[in-house]
Design goal:
Oligomer: heterodimer
Distance between the termini of chain A: 45 Å
Number of strands of chain A: 2
Mean pLDDT of chain A: 85
Low-confidence stretches of chain B: none
Largest interface: A-B, 15 and 18 residues
Order of helices and strands of chain A: HHHEEHHHHHHHHHHHHHHHHHHHHHHH
Radius of gyration of chain B: 18 Å
Mean pLDDT of chain B: 84
Structural class of chain A: mainly alpha
Structural class of chain B: mainly alpha
Strand order of the largest sheet of chain A: 1-2
Largest sheet of chain A: 2 strands, antiparallel
Shape of chain B: elongated
Radius of gyration of chain A: 24 Å
């Protein structure tokens, strides 16, 4: 039974999708039951793999149709689940279950629900297949199913023109990404005549020829499109905004994470190129740029879900930076942040969905005061907001702190500073959301808004509790989940050894069996006082600079801005209800950095041609970089 | 077909469609069924069978092709084909081997049509899924074309 678990956890979702396709659209109870059973079974099968893989440290391999490798040639398709795959599989299958549970009530008023669930299950199944496969071409097939299901789900509310537009943008950009991955796969297959990841890892070990470097560059560019790293991120906000919230949660929680897994698998295990300083620098630089641009764009948004989408990009920047550091601490931080990001961003998207379900809009300028009507949603939102902003004792604090520590220890102090600033800006933008959606005045049209139903609150509460748990018992979480996964990332020899046999692996790896022990010292993590002192010093320095710079609150003048809201406020009836709109809370910052925001605004033109061009340029730049520096 | 209710646009195309549809169907089904013996297989044969939809459309127009091939039935049949495939693939697990394992492979003489165990059935399931799926896709595209003409 144990050896069948990987295929069962994938195939139950696929079978569920096919059965749902047969059910009539109006038969809701049967359909919901099948969706719940399929997702839950898949989750159970994934959890059952915990004992053999993480507790006992084995790696499960599975050859489809018993096509085992003969004479070191892997001809058949193999599944291989190591600790890294299982780590991703665990939280991905959990979020699939929660999203399914949430969907039942959330999309009850929509039409075409049968198609929704078919696509939902197809997307989930393809992500599980992507995580558990040990075959390069399977990875491509799965990411293709994933992309097309995502595109269709983006355009699910096709009565809204922006949904169709976002779907079109997604299919154009996503197909370019898939094509890059396919081209790389073809090149590798033409060169080595095998598609098995373990065999390729052996073949590619320290084997940098022009062909392999070309394939590597294409792979990185292709997966960067899927992960929405910065110059390729333009389509993400559009897609996340218009997709149903249960799907936006899966986009940021599982589709993005699958691409992160792809990057990890390709550059750590298949190419093993992360010992090169140039590759480390590429990922760290890229991650830092991604996190910074994502968060600054989020500050300027006035739509709840669009803002969350930009935060999603920004948080993925942390993950990429973490895994780019290549130290044990860095990978631990990156993986921990990937887990936490799935939890808190899923939570926030579900909150946005709850707000949409109750009020019919996610525009922050129209919302306000919902905490009175939806107290539980507001509380859950605050938990999610504190988690993403990295406030102790929530889980975001732990993973961000590990990333700060790791980047500082690795000698990338500027990255640490940028990561801190990004975290502060994250908090700022969530204060904005909290202020304009949940606090302040309740607009008259939302007087009769009610709390969302219980079946929507249950998934939100589960994720909220997991967010708190991840912050309270970080050492337990790292010990039982993160460290085994980080260990698997760092010891790729084991992956090859289990799949292809010891004899094959020993041809390429000299140090078989003696895994380097993870250097797990979270120095300073348990000293929040040091953190507080740093905060005090920064505050003092800021005050000092402000006073020396001639800061005088009385002398504020906004002469060159023509807007009533900058006028002097006296009193009067018309100003009795003066709700500060979501986009206006940080107008000072936005005014000071208007040139930057104008530039960013111009870049996000909304034209799919520009976006495609930026993807192609990114691929070109990576090609140049990799050819110049990777040896 | 000598139904007088059907308006025919062009007799040459109609005759050609009448002539080629059976050939396409037989060839496609042959390729599906002999997937384990000769080059080709479920996918290739399925696409050839689905070309019958194109021929009917060319000869008789959109309305007749939707009447002949009901889109809803095709859609459901695709799911049935996929389920059949997973069922035959799961047989491998039930017979104490791996997923997709060919079981009952020592039935019949090598080279016969029924000689290869479940791989034959899996192939047929793939063929069924592809012929219905591609047929449905073609109908969908013709539907878009037909709407434009109005």
């Amino acid at each position: 039974m144990t050896q069948h678990l990987p295929i069962l956890s994938i195939i139950t979702l696929f079978i569920g999708a096919f059965i749902v396709a047969l059910i009539k659209e109006k038969n809701e109870i049967l359909r919901n039951t099948i969706v719940l059973i399929a997702t839950f079974l898949s989750f159970i099968f994934t959890v059952m793999m915990y004992k053999p893989i993480i507790s006992e440290g084995n790696i499960l391999t599975y050859w489809m149709g018993n096509w085992e490798p003969i004479k070191d040639w892997a001809i058949g398709i193999g599944l291989e689940v190591d600790q890294l795959s299982l780590f991703f599989g665990l939280f991905i299958s959990l979020s699939i279950v929660l999203s399914a549970l949430y969907s039942f009530r959330y999309i009850e008023r929509e039409t075409g629900k049968d198609k929704y669930y078919v696509l939902f299950l197809m997307m989930s199944a393809s992500v599980m297949g992507f995580i558990f496969t040990g075959d390069l071409f399977n990875m491509y097939v799965m990411i293709e199913i994933m992309t097309f299901a995502s595109v269709a789900l983006t355009a699910f509310r096709n009565d809204r023109p922006e949904a169709v537009e976002a779907g079109f943008k997604y299919i154009a950009i996503g197909s370019i990404g898939s094509s890059l991955i396919l081209l790389a796969t073809v090149i590798i297959y033409a060169q080595f005549h095998t598609l098995n990841l373990a065999q390729l890892a052996g073949e590619l070990y320290n084997n940098y020829t022009v062909t392999t470097i070309f394939a590597l560059a294409l792979m990185i560019a292709g997966y960067a499109v899927k992960v929405f790293a910065v110059p390729t991120h333009f389509v993400a906000p559009d897609a996340y905004m218009v997709a149903p919230s249960s799907i936006s949660m899966l986009f940021s929680g599982i589709v993005n994470k699958a691409a992160v897994y792809g990057i990890l698998r390709i550059i750590y295990v298949v190419y093993q190129s992360m010992n090169l300083p140039s590759m480390q620098f590429l990922l760290i630089f890229w991650g830092t740029v991604t996190m910074f641009i994502g968060v600054t764009m989020a500050l300027a948004q006035h739509d709840f879900k669009r803002l969350l989408a930009f935060h999603s990009i920004s948080q993925i920047g942390y993950v990429i930076t973490g895994i780019g550091l290549t130290t044990a601490l860095g990978i631990t931080g990156g993986l921990y942040h990937a887990l936490n990001h799935t939890l808190f961003k899923g939570l926030l998207f579900l909150c946005a969905g709850a707000v949409f379900y109750a009020t019919g809009t996610t525009d922050l300028d129209k919302l306000g005061g919902l905490a009175k009507r939806m107290p539980q949603t507001a509380l859950i939102f605050l938990i999610g907001a504190f988690s993403i902003s990295g406030i102790p004792p929530f889980n975001g604090f732990v993973s961000k702190w590990i990333i700060y520590q790791a980047s500082y220890e690795a000698g990338y102090a500027p990255v640490t500073i940028i990561a801190l600033i990004v975290s502060v800006m994250t908090l700022a933008s969530f204060i904005k959301v909290a202020q304009s959606a949940f606090f302040g005045q309740l607009p008259k049209e939302f007087k009769n808004v009610e709390e969302v139903p219980l079946s929507m609150r249950i998934p939100m509460w589960i994720m909220a509790i997991l967010c708190i748990l991840g912050g309270i018992i970080p050492s337990t979480v790292t010990k039982y989940l993160i460290t085994p996964a980080a260990d698997a990332v760092m010891n790729s020899a084991k992956y090859v050894e289990v799949m292809m046999g010891r004899e094959f692996a020993s041809k390429f790896y000299n140090n078989l069996g003696n895994a380097p022990i993870i250097d797990y010292k979270l120095a300073g993590y348990w000293q929040p006082i040091a953190w507080l002192i740093l905060f005090g010093i920064l505050l003092l320095a800021f005050t000092l600079v402000a006073v020396l710079g001639g800061f005088n609150p009385k002398k504020f003048s906004y002469a060159d801005v023509e807007d009533a809201k900058y006028d002097v406020f006296y009193s009067g009836e018309s100003a009795e209800f003066s709700h500060v709109g979501g986009s206006d809370l940080f107008w000072g910052l936005k005014y000071q950095f208007r040139h930057y925001f104008d530039f960013m605004h111009k870049i996000h033109s909304g034209l799919v041609n520009d976006y495609a061009l930026s993807v192609v340029l990114t691929a070109a730049v990576i090609l140049l970089y990799v050819f110049t520096f990777v040896r | 077909m000598s139904n007088k209710n059907i308006k025919v646009k062009d007799y040459i195309i109609k005759s050609a469609a009448d002539f080629f549809t059976p050939i396409g169907l037989v060839l496609g089904l042959y390729i599906i069924l002999h997937g384990h013996l000769s080059p080709g297989g479920g996918f290739q044969g399925g696409v050839i069978v689905a070309s019958a939809v194109v021929l009917i459309y060319l000869g008789y127009g959109f309305e007749v092709s939707t009447k002949t091939f009901k889109p809803n039935v095709l859609k459901k049949s695709e799911a049935i084909g996929a389920l059949m495939y997973t069922f035959f693939a799961l047989l491998g697990i039930f017979y104490a081997a791996n997923f997709c394992r060919n079981v009952f492979f020592n039935v019949g003489n090598p080279g016969d049509l029924f000689s290869s165990g479940t791989i034959f059935l899996m192939n047929a399931a793939v063929g069924y899924k592809v012929l219905t799926g591609v047929g449905f896709l073609i109908l969908l595209m013709f539907g878009l074309l037909a709407n434009k003409e109005e």
